[in-house]
Design a protein that fits this description.
alpha+beta; binds FE2/S2 (inorganic) cluster
Length: 135
């Protein structure tokens, strides 16, 4: 049986960037039906860069630590680099997760990717077709 790293415990006890975001530029929602955990991720995008990330979560200690460290990894990255983040990056940033808790790492990055995807969909919706722009 393995235990949580000090980093996991620290992020669980004092989660970073937790909360709701008004007027988010993208929102991603992800749940794990096997355990019932759920997370909603909000992103603020400025100049193609993730300026801020917030989240609301109902989940296990590992998933809360995952969400918290995901925000630290994502803030300040441009959208392409943020999309390159992996579950493995999250696990490494937490100095590991117990084997039986590795699946919890999926929530953080998937929620972030869905929020970025939502941002892209909103942006595409705002871009007018070429012939409309030329009048
Ligand atoms: Fe469900 Fe951790 S037990 S995400």
């Amino acid at each position: 049986m393995s235990f949580y790293s000090e980093k996991v415990v620290s992020h669980f006890k004092e989660p970073k960037n937790v909360g709701f975001m008004e007027d988010a530029d993208g929102i991603g929602e992800i749940g794990d039906p096997s355990c019932g955990d759920f997370m909603r991720v909000f992103i603020r995008v400025r100049d193609n860069t993730i300026a801020d990330v917030k989240y609301q979560i109902r989940g296990c200690p590992a998933s809360i630590a995952v969400a918290s460290v995901m925000t630290e990894l994502a803030i300040g990255k441009d959208l392409d680099d943020a999309l390159m983040l992996t579950d493995d990056d999250v696990v490494k940033a937490l100095d590991g997760l117990p084997e039986e808790k590795l699946h919890c790492s999926v929530l953080g990055i998937t929620g972030l990717r869905k929020a970025i995807q939502d941002h892209f969909m909103r942006y595409i919706g705002d871009v007018k077709p070429q012939e409309d722009q030329n009048g």
